[in-house]
Amino acid sequence: TAEVRPGHPLVRRQVLFASFSAIALLKPHVAGLAAEEVSLEDRVAALLTAGDTRAVEGLIPELEALGGSQKLLSEGPGSYEVPWLGGWDVSVVGGDAALIGVPEAPRKVSLNGQQVRLEILSNRQYVFGPVSATEDLERAACSREVCDGKGVARDGSTSFESVYEVKPDGGTLVAAPSPPARILLARSGSIIKLDDFLYRMEFRQPARMYLLPATAHADSDANVDIRELPTDAGVVLSPVVAMVQRFSYLSESLWISRSANDGKIITILRRCDARAFAPPAGRPDLTAPCSD
Questions:
Q1: What is the distance between the alpha carbons of residues 116 and 123, in angstroms, rounded to a whole number?
Q2: Once rounded to an integer, what is the mean pLDDT over residues 106-118?
Q3: In terms of C-beta distances under 8 Å and separation of at least 24 residues, what long-range contacts does 134-139 make, across chains too?
């Protein structure tokens, strides 16, 4: 028989199997927890839709105490261990969304020679998985901080997309885009799954701005024509971001994390069927249906 040493992968597997066996003996209790989680998740979703972030913040500790049905999968290193591939609606509580890499819209945008203002419609994060699974594990084994550059992953494993509706700035649009359009801000970066429920995100490139048809809906069809706007259309605020976050709750439909240094920045992500309008170049669209 093979020798099994402390820290050996077999030890972790045996512990997990033992844990699953113990959970199997507590089916009624686990079912009750699942029902409680679903109820809390529904309340969080309703409050976020209503814009009541203060009430949401009060419910987060209750969810974190339960952990979520998928949290154990986020314990170890390696991005493919975590069921996070796809699209997520993003909300940030207790901090500025720009601190986690979400691009901020410029105060003024010039369209058809007119200054317009933008009204946010959606913030979404897409997780495409590591560019290289081998590199992902090597960097994850490094540390939670950058060490000799090995903690920096190649760009393209994740992205943020923010969609804004175009509004007149103090008047009516004399020459509105035809057909009516929206503005898309897209920013790609890297995400590395570390040990101990941690992950690291980096966004070093600025966001890019696109003109998006108002009829486009990422929930149903991302195969639409988008046109990149020139940099002088508006100044997109895209500070370089490098942040370590910790999973505090993870289920099939809800992902909550906190900033690892102080826990004050809380990111709430809700699973959605949306597809990226502008995925990182050269990356397969893992959010696409199998039929595509």
A1: 20
A2: 75
A3: 136/78, 136/79, 136/80, 136/192, 136/193, 137/77, 137/78, 139/192
